[in-house]
Design goal:
This protein has two domains: 94 residues, 2-Layer Sandwich (Phosphorylase Kinase, domain 1); 206 residues, Aminoglycoside phosphotransferase (APH), C-terminal lobe (Aminoglycoside 3'-phosphotransferase, Chain: A, domain 2). The protein contains ten helices and eleven strands. The strands form three sheets. Strands 1-2-3-4-6-5 form a six-stranded antiparallel beta sheet. A three-stranded antiparallel beta sheet has the order 7-9-10, covered by helices on one side. It has a two-stranded antiparallel sheet with strand order 8-11. Helix 5 packs parallel to helix 10 and helix 6 packs across helix 7. It holds the Pfam family APH. InterPro entries: Aminoglycoside_PTrfase, Kinase-like_dom_sf.
Length: 306
């Protein structure tokens, strides 16, 4: 489809091409944003507009500020323009110059080193608006939103939250610094240059001032096939091995499974036709079941205190 689209400020996007989904994540399927490619003043761009459902849980000013700052620093796509009021981001179109990272990339040492390095560089960014919320804070907020929406939730969610509350208390007792981090470990948010293999990070909705080990945790549970693999990746990222810090990272990652599952439930309630979030949320809750059920979670909790 090739048409025109009016953008914020009265500008017109020409040669509009609606994005073709290539990854099984809500962002790629346009469940959280309207995604459109086209040309603006003869420059190829990618337009994102947050849906009403997404704007109910995304801190749009903070997400836009993080996206702009990352783009200026070369950690994300360049931002051509933005409009917080309409939830619109006009980004440089990376379709021809980059490809989406996959789990297969995580099997190469070069990618893994570059990936951990770019995630750590986020700590140097200074966006004008910053979100301050841990994954545990997000889970509490989502629980409130789900109650407001009258959304059905699985009975096991109570158990998940009880285990994660225990993990949060133990992590808080260790004390930790907060730094700006991207916060989303989904590899579909990573673009790989087709020429030199350099990386860019997309979708800064979860960017926040958090424990850096939270960001490492969400990356580990995405990349690692099992805990043995997670141990190896942790040492690559951290430079040495620490049993308690690995346990902390893993619980952060498991909490992210619950957060993403709750997001799926919330969007289901707010926008019942959005099946992609439903499928993605169900998958994340399955991962939470595998990680938090049985005696393994108790053993992992005790390791946080070591």
């Amino acid at each position: 489809m090739t048409t025109k689209l009016e953008l914020s400020g009265g500008r017109v996007l020409s040669d509009r091409m609606d994005g073709t989904p290539t990854m099984a994540s809500p962002s790629w399927w346009g469940a959280d944003t309207l995604r459109i490619r086209g040309r603006l003043d003869d420059v190829a761009v990618h337009v994102r507009r947050y849906t009403d459902a997404a704007r109910s849980y995304v801190n749009v000013p903070a997400a836009v500020a993080a996206t702009e700052t990352a783009g200026a620093a070369g950690l994300g796509p360049a931002v051509v323009s933005s409009d917080v009021a309409s939830g619109e981001l006009v980004l440089a179109d990376l379709t021809e110059t980059h490809r989406t990272a996959t789990l297969a990339d995580g099997n190469t040492a070069e990618f893994v080193h570059s990936y951990f390095e770019i995630r750590s560089r986020v700590g140097d960014l200074k966006p004008t608006v910053v979100r301050e919320a841990t994954v545990f804070d997000d889970i509490r907020e989502l629980g409130f939103r789900l109650g407001e929406a009258g959304a059905p939730v699985p009975a096991e969610l109570t158990y998940f939250r009880r285990v994660l509350d225990d993990a949060e208390k133990r992590i808080k007792a260790t004390d930790f610094d907060r730094e700006l981090r991207h916060g989303d470990g989904n590899l579909s948010n990573v673009m790989v240059s087709r020429t030199d293999g350099s990386l860019l990070l997309l979708d800064w909705d979860l960017a926040a001032m958090i424990d850096p080990f939270q960001d490492l945790g969400v990356a580990l549970v995405e990349l690692a096939e099992d805990e043995t693999h997670a141990r190896e990746l942790f040492e690559v990222a951290y430079g040495s091995f620490d049993e308690a810090l690995l346990a902390r990272c893993l619980f952060y990652g498991y909490a992210d499974h619950v957060r993403q599952g709750m997001l799926g439930m919330l969007v289901d309630a707010l926008d019942p036709g959005s099946f992609e979030y439903s499928k993605f949320g169900d998958w994340q809750l399955l991962r939470a079941r595998l990680a938090l059920s049985g005696t393994r979670s108790g053993e992992l909790l005790r390791r946080i205190d070591q």
